[in-house]
Recover the amino acids of this structure.
């Protein structure tokens, strides 16, 4: 515990950066993922193909490779810090998984909803925004929650590019204090503070939705 | 001799070196898959059986592991366990860390799969004189596995991608060896990263096609 007393500002700073990166990537990946999900179910062929290709590529390559690409190659052209590269990488990567969840949600909504809305004079975009998406999101909520947990865990990848996050700062503490055991336990507790309550809430949500169905 | 930088990055030595890394990536993946399938099934069944106290205890530990970053588990196994006197070679440290994390993820899939099997199947099998263990092994598990194959394969895709995290403890797998190659010459960065992307993509896209095939033919 003396370790925590001695290094707490470092841990708190890392925790702050982890929360910040997670929040930015969460908002960004929800927007991007929803866009790609709509593209995948749209009637325009180019949009479907583009959406599919995006999702397949980002789902099937390691987040570390995406982040390294941004940090080492893209950052040569567009200046960015490790924190930015890591957060953008996290956002791009997660958006592919969000797109999958939202797409499954949209497909689970009866086609009659879209047809009814269109028959009542709403445009495709209006029907999507006001009728289909709100219902789809409710269905997709548990799986989106799981994606968010993965996002928080995956934010540890920022440590590879000097992203100042919890994992990065924790490694610093481990290296200076030599007490690797306690340090990694403390980092673990910090991550669990975010992920565990969320994970229990999702389990509750899933049981609740199953009972309703 | 004048050559294009792009092709220079892939001279014979570098290609051999990268292929060796791919071998380690595949090796870690396969051993971890086998271990985590075994452990994940056992943990999943324990959670499903609802043995008083024991199942809750196992489920809590499982939840904790599932909710930690894999990178942290890898670092813990490689850097923290030696303080307790457990020294593992880097390859096995990675395998143990990955298997621990993946079995926690797979246990959830197994539990979900078991819960999706109709209660009548248990009752019918028990009524026909099978023991609890026989019912599980011959009747319930085969049906549950059918439903579990697609999510299990997605989990395997994560596993293959996640082996890249072991470059953080300097395991000489594919990603780490790529980093070593472009460290020689910065013009190699883009070509190496593009090729790594392609290799991982092909491995995982192949796996996802298998998942789709199972999805269509079993469901």
């Amino acid at each position: 515990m003396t370790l925590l007393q001695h290094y707490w500002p470092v841990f708190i700073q890392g925790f702050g950066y982890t929360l910040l990166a997670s929040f930015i990537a969460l908002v960004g990946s929800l927007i991007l993922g929803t866009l790609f999900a709509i593209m995948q179910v749209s009637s325009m062929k180019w949009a479907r193909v583009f959406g599919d290709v995006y999702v397949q590529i980002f789902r099937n390559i390691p987040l570390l490779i995406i982040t390294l690409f941004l940090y080492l190659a893209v950052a040569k052209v567009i200046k960015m810090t490790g924190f930015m590269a890591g957060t953008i990488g996290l956002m791009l990567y997660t958006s592919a998984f969000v797109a999958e969840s939202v797409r499954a949600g949209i497909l689970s909504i009866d086609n009659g909803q879209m047809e009814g809305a269109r028959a009542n004079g709403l445009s495709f975009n209006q029907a999507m925004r006001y009728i289909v998406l709100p219902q789809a999101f409710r269905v997709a909520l548990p799986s989106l929650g799981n994606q968010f947990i993965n996002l928080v865990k995956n934010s540890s990848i920022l440590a590879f590019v000097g992203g100042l996050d919890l994992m990065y700062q924790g490694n610093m503490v481990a290296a200076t204090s030599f007490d690797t055991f306690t340090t990694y336990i403390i980092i673990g507790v910090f991550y669990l503070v975010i992920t565990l309550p969320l994970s229990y809430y999702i389990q509750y949500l899933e049981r609740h939705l199953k009972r309703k169905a | 001799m004048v050559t294009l930088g792009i092709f220079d990055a892939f001279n014979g030595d570098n290609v051999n070196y990268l292929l060796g890394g791919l071998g380690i990536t595949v090796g870690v993946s396969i051993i971890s898959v086998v271990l985590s399938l075994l452990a994940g099934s056992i943990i999943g069944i324990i959670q499903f059986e609802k043995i008083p106290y024991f199942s809750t205890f196992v489920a809590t530990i499982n939840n904790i592991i599932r909710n930690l970053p894999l990178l942290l588990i890898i670092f813990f196994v490689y850097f923290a366990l030696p303080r307790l006197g457990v020294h593992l070679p880097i390859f096995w440290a990675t395998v143990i860390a990955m298997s621990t994390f993946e079995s926690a993820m797979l246990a959830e899939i197994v539990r979900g799969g078991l819960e999706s099997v109709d209660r009548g199947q248990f009752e019918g099998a028990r009524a026909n004189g099978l023991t609890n263990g026989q019912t599980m092994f011959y009747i319930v598990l085969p049906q549950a596995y059918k439903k579990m194959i697609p999510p299990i394969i997605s989990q395997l895709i994560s596993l293959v991608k996640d082996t890249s995290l072991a470059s953080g403890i300097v395991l000489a797998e594919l990603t780490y060896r790529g980093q070593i190659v472009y460290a020689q010459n910065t013009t190699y960065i883009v070509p190496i990263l593009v090729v790594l992307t392609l290799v991982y993509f092909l491995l995982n896209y192949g796996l996802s096609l298998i998942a789709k095939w199972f999805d269509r033919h079993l469901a």
